[in-house]
């Protein structure tokens, strides 16, 4: 018997079975006491459920594909499924009547799957025992993947891209670490590792070993979504922070772990390492059966909700603040004594006083630089801190050695300020000024970097702290912390109040409206009525309402938006990955350049010194070269290079989310969409994109038989397409007849649907010949043909329906264009000079009518998903960057195939997997393209500044102007210039934020703003 074993393509092999290795999310549970394993062994798969305490999950060894013969109806399907599901090693059995194939998933506890093995043969025997033929046609083996978790750490002490590269290289090489991503702007790192091979503590210790302070903020454990109906919200864990009611309560982490260890829905507990003594963080999956109040009740009265973390605004590091406050007065003292007559009053004791005063600045205030340099050097990792530490230590140690060597002469009075220029021999003022300026620059840079993330802080601030719930028993009101909300709670919101969670309105006033501008970009209040969805974080501006909470904690739209924005801000476009590579070798290159300069000057000074240095002594020449070396080390700036891209990305993603209602999933999008060197083609879907996606029946012909309408409604009810929904609602306004049995349902994209309803074959679609099954028969139905053509010419979508090959009637539907569609096309074509295409699955006549109304020249009708992908490939081959705009569901393959996939969603629907960008409204599309151009332009300006700064300043610091002009760059000035270069980059990135605020902060004419940004003249028609 010949068997093929791949599920996607058949391989001819008469002797063996090739297996397809497919990774799974989790590994089998190795805990012998696991509850789910015991249940599965004792009672079979029917009693098996997910084990949340040990994360064994629904691990499967593989799947067996069986060809089943003899099935005629859904009863046959049920018979086969029930028989196979009863086998103890089977997780699930799914039978498709149309393909007559059964997919049987085998639990990992079963033996290894092989042709002819006991489980495989038992499946075949079971199917044959209930009266059907069975033949194994494929076996798929799943490759177990070790369980992982992700630790999120806060890291302090990073100053440039070299620091990021050092941490990523060190942690990435650790055993068990899968991925590591470090965010320089936020000072955060996300590390995914294999459980058992690594841990958050090991990662933290490794980071601290190279001189940075690391702290585990929280740990994310993967949780699979429960099985449910389509559209069900995935089971995302959220975190509840609890602590003892007082230090005297006598409870700690281990007590909480013992209590909650076997609680279904609790997926993890860990002690907070954020400086909150006694705080326990509980990761759980919110549901109607489990909520925060249930967990607190189970813990007992000794526990309470932990205080909320402080706001995410800028707060100066207290240690840095203390060091700055100490360094400033000491630096002033050293500078005054070195440069004024006051120093001469100290006479021979001046060098000693300068040494004592400069010492705390060098080794206390500047300890952060030295610590990172030492630990980095131990791991062969060089950063800006090494340059600072190396330069200042050289200057300070040289000066200190000079003082100690000349101490006898100073004490005896042979060397005084009258016969010796101390400033030519000591560099104490240089080191103190450098350390102080760099500390001030670090503080200013941190503040500026915090400003780049202000949009994220603005979003976070929308989350209220309290919620008012309506008690079920007596209808009384109770105010609770928002973290204690349960799914199913009835929440009351007064006018002016913030909505604390996502939910469905159950009671609203006549004029109830919510401001969702910060979440969706929609500036006008959105009216709310009973049954409407509300978004957590929005503001009830009028009317007041009550709603039932459907999503709480990290499941809410606001939380998911924040996660999406944070993820995008942490991602790296290609240009940043390139600059990171440059930054990684920057410090060694500077050290090599410095060594070359010193050697060149040493040779030149000895062989042919410049005229200005001809009268210098050898010691004076050496000091001059020494100053050149110090200036080179101080002026070299990898920080500006490392900040050039991430600061612009952080500002742009935040501005896109809060100002334009655009959620960017990957920073690479800005680089692709903003590239003006390549032509851009925008491909627009029609239904649900240019139209509202809510078609309504406008005209019908035929349908004299009410039974036929009922069967059509039952058939269309199995499709999620908006047209099918509208037809089903028209054909059965009171609801689909539940007594009708639908079998063999098949939705053919771009064609229609077909199925059997109570033994009658139903077809519905736009092609009459396909509906009746014969092109000849269709041509004979001129009444229907002419009616369908007239409606299509009028812009309607037409669907014909047939029962057993006999046409029952035709339906015309129209979907209103979105109000902003015409403006969008005008902006794309005339303001941005882009090529615009419309690609629709509707009939060509209908698609052309809509295209003419909108002013779109390039239109393709009757396009199947494969046709859309073919168009995208063709446009790419012609040198275009393709931006595909669709509804995010039906256009998934096309969105994934495009260079940039844009899904038109809502404030609640932000997790469209196939897209790169989610926009709330088409109004945000053109501004997003302009924002991408501005962002890419800003990145290139930043990089230009970072490179040109070093290109100009390094030769100047090396003394290139000294021979002809005598101009040098003092080390102190070099340090100030280096600190300022980073501030220039960050400030330039902030200009993106000011740009979006000035143009898109209010209801302005977007076309005008776009024309201003692109420098084009208005009005080409």
UniProtKB/TrEMBL annotation:
It holds the Pfam family E1-E2_ATPase. Gene3D superfamilies: 3.30.70.100, Calcium-transporting ATPase, cytoplasmic domain N (3.40.1110.10), Calcium-transporting ATPase, cytoplasmic transduction domain A (2.70.150.10), HAD superfamily/HAD-like (3.40.50.1000). The keyword Ribosomal protein does not apply. Its EC number is 7.2.2.8. SUPFAM superfamilies: Calcium ATPase, transduction domain A, Calcium ATPase, transmembrane domain M, HAD-like, HMA, heavy metal-associated domain, Metal cation-transporting ATPase, ATP-binding domain N. Keywords: ATP-binding, Copper, Copper transport, Ion transport, Magnesium, Membrane, Metal-binding, Nucleotide-binding, Repeat, Translocase, Transmembrane, Transmembrane helix, Transport. It is found in: Endomembrane system; Membrane. The chain crosses the membrane at residues 324-343, 349-370, 382-405, 582-604, 624-644, 943-962, 974-995. Residues 62-135, 149-215 form the HMA domain. It is a multi-pass membrane protein. GO terms for cellular component: endomembrane system; membrane. GO terms for biological process: copper ion homeostasis. The keyword Ligase does not apply. One of its GO terms (molecular function) is copper ion binding. It is an enzyme of class 7 (translocase). NCBIfam families: ATPase-IB_hvy (TIGR01525), ATPase_P-type (TIGR01494), copper ion binding protein (TIGR00003). Belongs to the cation transport ATPase (P-type) (TC 3.A.3) family. Type IB subfamily. This is P-type Cu(+) transporter. It comes from Perkinsus olseni.
């Amino acid at each position: 018997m010949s068997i093929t074993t791949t599920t996607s393509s058949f391989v001819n092999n008469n002797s063996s079975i090739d297996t397809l290795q497919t990774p799974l999310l989790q590994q089998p549970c190795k805990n012998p006491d696991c509850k789910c394993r015991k249940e599965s062994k004792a009672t079979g798969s029917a009693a098996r459920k997910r084990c949340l305490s040990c994360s064994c999950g629904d691990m499967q060894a593989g799947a067996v594909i069986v060809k089943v013969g003899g099935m005629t109806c859904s009863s046959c399907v049920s018979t086969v499924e029930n028989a196979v599901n009863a086998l103890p090693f089977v997780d699930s059995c799914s039978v498709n009547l149309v393909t007559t194939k059964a997919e049987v998933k085998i639990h990992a506890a079963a033996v290894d799957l092989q042709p002819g093995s006991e489980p495989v043969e038992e499946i075949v025997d079971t199917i044959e025992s209930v009266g059907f033929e069975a033949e194994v046609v494929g076996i798929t083996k799943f490759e177990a993947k070790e369980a992982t978790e992700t630790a999120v750490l806060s890291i302090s002490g990073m100053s440039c891209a070299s620091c990021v590269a050092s941490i990523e290289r060190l942690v990435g090489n650790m055993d068990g670490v899968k991925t590591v991503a470090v965010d320089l702007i936020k000072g955060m790192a996300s590390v995914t590792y294999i459980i058992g091979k690594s841990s958050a503590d090991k990662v933290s210790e490794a980071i601290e070993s190279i001189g940075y302070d690391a702290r585990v903020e929280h740990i994310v454990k993967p949780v699979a979504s429960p099985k449910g109906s389509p559209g069900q919200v995935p089971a995302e864990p959220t975190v509840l922070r609890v602590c003892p009611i007082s230090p005297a309560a006598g409870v700690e982490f281990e007590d909480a772990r013992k209590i909650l260890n076997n609680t279904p829905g609790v997926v993890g507990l860990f002690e907070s390492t954020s400086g909150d003594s006694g705080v326990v963080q509980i990761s759980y999956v919110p549901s109607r059966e489990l909520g925060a109040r249930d967990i607190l009740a189970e813990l007992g009265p000794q526990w309470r909700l932990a205080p909320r973390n402080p706001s995410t605004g800028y707060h100066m590091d207290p240690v840095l603040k203390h060091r700055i406050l100490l360094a400033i007065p000491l630096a002033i003292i050293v500078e005054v004594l070195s440069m004024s007559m006051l120093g001469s009053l100290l006479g021979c004791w001046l060098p000693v006083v300068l040494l004592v005063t400069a010492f705390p600045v060098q080794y206390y205030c500047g300890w952060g630089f030295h610590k990172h340099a030492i630990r980095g050097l131990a791991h062969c990792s060089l950063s800006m801190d090494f340059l600072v530490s190396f330069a200042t230590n050289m200057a300070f140690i040289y000066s200190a050695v000079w003082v100690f060597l000349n101490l006898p002469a100073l004490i005896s009075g042979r060397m005084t300020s009258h016969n010796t220029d101390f400033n030519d021999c000591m560099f104490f003022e240089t080191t103190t000024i450098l350390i102080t300026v760099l500390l001030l620059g670090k503080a200013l840079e941190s503040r500026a970097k915090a400003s780049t993330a202000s949009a994220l802080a603005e979003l976070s601030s929308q989350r209220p702290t309290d919620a008012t719930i309506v008690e079920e028993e007596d209808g009384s009101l109770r105010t609770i912390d928002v973290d204690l909300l349960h799914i199913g709670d009835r929440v009351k919101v007064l006018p002016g109040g913030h909505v604390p969670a996502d939910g469905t309105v159950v009671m609203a006033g006549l004029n109830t409206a919510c401001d969702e501008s910060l979440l969706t970009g929609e500036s006008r209040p959105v009216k709310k009525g009973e049954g409407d969805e509300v978004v957590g974080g929005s503001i009830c501006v009028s009317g007041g309402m009550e709603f039932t909470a459907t999503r709480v904690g990290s499941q809410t739209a606001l939380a998911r938006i924040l996660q999406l924005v944070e993820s995008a801000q942490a991602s790296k476009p290609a240009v940043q990955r390139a600059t990171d590579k440059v930054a990684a070798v920057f410090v060694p290159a500077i050290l090599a350049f410095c060594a070359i300069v010193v050697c060149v000057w040493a040779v030149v000074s000895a062989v042919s010194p410049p005229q200005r240095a001809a009268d210098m002594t050898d010691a004076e020449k050496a000091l001059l070269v020494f100053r050149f070396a110090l200036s080179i080390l101080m002026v070299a700036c990898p920080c500006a290079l490392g900040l050039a891209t991430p600061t612009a990305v952080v500002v742009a993603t935040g501005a896109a989310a809060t100002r334009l209602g655009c959620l960017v999933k990957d920073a690479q999008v800005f680089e692709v969409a903003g590239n003006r060197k390549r032509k851009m083609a925008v491909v627009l879907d029609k239904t649900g994109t240019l139209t509202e996606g809510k078609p309504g029946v406008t005209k019908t012909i035929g349908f004299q038989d009410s039974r036929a309408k009922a069967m059509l409604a039952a058939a269309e009810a199995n499709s999620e397409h908006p047209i099918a929904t509208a037809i089903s609602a028209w054909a059965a306004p009171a609801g689909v007849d539940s007594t009708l049995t639908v079998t063999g349902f098949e939705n053919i994209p771009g064609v229609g649907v077909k199925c059997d309803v109570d033994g009658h074959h139903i077809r519905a679609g736009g092609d009459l010949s396909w509906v009746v099954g014969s092109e000849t028969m269709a041509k004979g139905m001129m009444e229907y043909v002419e009616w369908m053509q007239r409606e299509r010419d009028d812009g309607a979508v037409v669907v014909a329906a047939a029962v057993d090959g006999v046409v029952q009637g035709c339906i015309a539907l129209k979907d209103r264009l979105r109000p902003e569609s015409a403006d969008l096309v005008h902006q794309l074509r005339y303001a941005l000079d882009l090529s615009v295409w419309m690609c629709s699955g509707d009939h060509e006549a209908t698609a052309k009518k809509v295209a003419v109304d909108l002013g779109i020249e390039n239109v393709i009708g009757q396009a199947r998903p494969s046709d859309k992908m073919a168009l995208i490939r063709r446009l790419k081959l012609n040198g275009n960057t393709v931006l595909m705009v669709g509804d995010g569901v039906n256009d998934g393959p096309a969105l994934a195939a495009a260079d940039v996939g844009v899904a038109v969603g809502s404030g609640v629907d932000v997790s469209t997997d196939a897209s790169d960008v989610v926009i709330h409204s088409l109004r945000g599309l053109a501004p997003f393209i302009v924002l991408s151009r501005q962002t890419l332009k800003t990145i290139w300006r930043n990089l230009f500044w970072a490179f040109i700064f070093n290109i100009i300043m390094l030769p100047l610091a090396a003394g290139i102007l000294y021979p002809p002009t005598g101009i040098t760059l003092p080390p102190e000035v070099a340090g100030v210039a280096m600190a300022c270069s980073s501030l220039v980059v960050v400030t330039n990135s902030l200009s993106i934020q000011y740009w979006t605020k000035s143009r898109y902060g209010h209801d302005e004419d977007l076309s005008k703003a776009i024309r201003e940004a692109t420098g084009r003249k208005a009005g080409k028609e």
